Amino acid sequence: MKRLRVAIVGFGKLGKACAEAVRDDEQLFLAGIVRRPESLGEKLPSNMEQVPIVPHTSELGEVGVALVCVPTTEALVVARDLLQHRISIVECATLHGKALQEHKEELNRLATHHNVPAIVGAGWDPGALSLFRAIFDLLIPGGQTETSWHTAASMHHTTAAKSVRGVKEALSTELRTGDGKLQRYVYVELEKGTDPANVESAIRSDHLFLGEETLVFPVESIKTLEEEGRGVLLERRGKAAGAGHQALLLEARYSEQALAGAVMAAAARAIPLCGRGAVSLFDLPLGNLWGMLKKRGEQEWF
Ligand SMILES: NC(=O)c1ccc[n+]([C@@H]2O[C@H](COP(=O)([O-])OP(=O)(O)OC[C@H]3O[C@@H](n4cnc5c(N)ncnc54)[C@H](OP(=O)(O)O)[C@@H]3O)[C@@H](O)[C@H]2O)c1
Question: Quick one: pLDDT at residue 174?
Answer without folding.
Answer: 76
